[in-house]
Amino acid sequence: MIVPLLEIAVPYVAFAIFLIGVIYRAINWAKSPVPLKIPTTCGQQYTLPFIRRTIYDRFDSPYTKWETIGRMFFEVFFFRSLFRNTRYYYTRHEHRDTRFLWFFAILFHWSFLLVLISHLRFFLEPVPGWLEFYMEVSGLKGAFVPEIYIPGITAFVGLLCLFGRRLFLGKERTISLPSDYLALILLISVIATGLLMRYIIKVPIEPVKELAIGLVTFHPVATDVHPLFLLHLLLACTALAYFPFSKLMHAAGVLFSPTRNMPNDNRARTHVNPWNPPYKGITWQEYYEMYKDQLDEIAEEGYKVRPEV
Amino acid sequence: MEEHPEVLKIEQKFPSWRDMLKPVTEKDFKPGFYHYPILEKDAQALGIPYRDWDPLDKDWKLPPDWKETFLNKFKELLDKYRSLKVFMDICVRCGACADKCHYYVGTGDPKNMPVARAETLRSIYRRYFTKIGQIFGEWAGARELTEDVIKELYYYFYQCSLCRRCSAFCPYGIDTAEIVWRGRELLNSIGVSHRFSFISIAASARTGNHLGLLPGGVAGALQSVAEDVYDITGIEIEVPVNKKGAEILFVSPSADFFATPHWYVCMGYLMLFHELGLDYTWSTYASEGGNFGTFQSYELAQKLNHKIYEEAERLGVKWILGGECGHMWRDKHQFMATMNPPPKTLEDPVNPITGTYFENAAETKMVHIAEFVADLIKHKKIKLDPSRNDHWKVTFHDSCNTARGMGLFEEPRYVIKNVCNYFYEMPEHTIREKTYCCGSGGGLLTEEVMELRMRGGMPRAMALKHVHKRFGVNFLCTICAIDKAAFPHLLEFWKLPVEVGGMMELVGNALIMKDEDQERTTDLRGNPLPGRGEE
């Protein structure tokens, strides 16, 4: 009784929580208006024709819709802002480029995406040709026997590096909350069990595939899977269900960030604030009445000030 | 470190996450780091709850229902600002922002890391607005809102100059300025407000400028500037004030009327406009470009920048030219037209001398002086003698707000390179979008936090020291009024023999004027020009 529950109910529930949670959070963000257009401009603004704007300026300080989309693209897929990272060295009072955080982050996120894609082979029957090809490439076919899928390894290494930062670097340790470690530990254990199944404790693949296809076609069948796989599945479901409640929502949040997703065309196209309050303050008339004498004196001089020489 | 003044020791501390959740209170407040509270007259003028309190008191005499007021206001702001809501949720604490903050670099105080500064508020958000925070409490990084927490918020929200340097490095674009701006608004709702900002805001709301100059004072100041121009050039310049029907309304920060080295910049404006025969006017009602309201709340920012459009409409000008100022331009570029829709009477901003249409200012009709002058130089409409600036070896400090709130990098450089012969850039990681704050922006330009300002300005001072040693740089050019007020102190503290001045001062020096009958022998400051006149 317990096995079908774990194999079928848990994945469905976790996925439902993930989907509903993410949509709910996104709608919740979208419900708050954006009163001001506040892009962080990291490049030369669009300006006079003889002022040169490089390709970087176009994406770091976008003026058109397409440039803004470009900025978001580089931000989401290549972590543009993180690539700019520097470190301050007190001994020399200097900055140096430090891209290791960017590198670890890129290493993990891209590898993880590739790992997720390769998981499609469990859900598709027959496995399409492109996926076979993709598996051969990511496994560097012929280099190792048995094949070693590189993304799985690099995702694991990337996560360990990100974890190591929080453990061993002072600043990072100070700002890390338990939830930061929890997210990392969850992902590390998901990947660790995955790697374990593939390379050390070989798990029979047939029941896994049967289960996976049953789940995606909504004809779930409980199969007799290896306990290690069950652990892998449960951990993955936990991560999935935890996602909308945690900082993992950064994946969706970056799309909502007004400092990145708005063009720097403030003076050319006025942004409208939906709740803009009416002006409260003194008008010219009130000001005039307060300082009538002095203002009249300026008027008497013909609205001109001349140097006394 | 050996060359630092003795007083400044930077101690980096790395407490545990639990210690980070404990509020820093009045017992730990250090002189030179905390701000004085709002004055009664300013609070009354602006409708902020007032009572007599001091940051070093144990009891801050918060109003009886302060907690409810604070949380209701928090809810209201979350519903009004997507930025706040998103930034409360998506931080992953990667630490990319940590050593980007000049206050963190200069103080080593872990709570000055931008992420930690935001966490002071985020922890309250988690406790009162998220389920996870309510259930798991401290383990989810949540904490109760107590009077001590309010003290901490006041202490750290006024150790941020809203420079947005951290935002440039954040992978999600989390903008600490946005969080701190909202945070200060929250504190204002329970009367925990800041003296210096509100003195200026109240003055500007009443008289039209932060200094509280009355109309006669503005006119008198302009007259004195014109007299100084006469002393240097022998030209009598008539300065139009409140003139109806002029083509352009000129607005600059009010410091240009009084302070040094702003004064020389003001001379530069008058000389240039006279030389061009520009049909423009100053205004006493809109005599302030800067906007300290942008350090406190949306409503106050709106209150202060409204006057410019109202005055433009009353005078019937076609468009508005703005002077050298930092946060003024964040306000004018990003906020002003949204807060107060531009009047219909304004026309397209077209340079009357060159005919250039400023397309990037098509709707708000406000053009930056650097754009205007760059355009003039490109079209060779003014004659320049850059050798008059040969006694200066110039470097340019990008002001935070024109850099990261506007993207104005090349125009001032274009102008500077055309008006002086010796120009050197500071190290790459301290200029343009990575520029460092002077340490005194965002309402921090006040005496009581002098140590904080000197520490916060350290990275900029070190970068300047580098070019001073390497190229002999002796002139720091900046286009921000707060920079010009802050840097002289900072450079004195860090023992750098470098003068501070504005772009328009250099332009004024180099400008060859038609009506001038004899060769100038001094620059605008009265320094003898090398190789000319009596040595």
TrEMBL record, chain A:
One of its GO terms (biological process) is anaerobic electron transport chain. The chain crosses the membrane at residues 6-27, 100-124, 148-169, 181-201, 225-245. It is found in: Cell membrane. It is a multi-pass membrane protein. GO terms for molecular function: electron transfer activity; heme binding; nitrate reductase activity. Residues 97-252 form the NarG-like domain. It holds the Pfam family Nitrate_red_gam. This is Nitrate reductase gamma subunit. The lineage of its organism: Archaea, Methanobacteriati, Methanobacteriota, Archaeoglobi, Archaeoglobales.
TrEMBL record, chain B:
The keyword Cell membrane does not apply. GO terms for molecular function: 4 iron, 4 sulfur cluster binding; metal ion binding; oxidoreductase activity. The keyword Metal-binding applies. Residues 82-111 form the 4Fe-4S ferredoxin-type domain. Coiled coil: none annotated. InterPro entries: 4Fe4S_Fe-S-bd, 4Fe4S_Fe_S_CS, Cys_rich_dom, Helical_ferredxn. This is Heterodisulfide reductase, subunit D, putative.
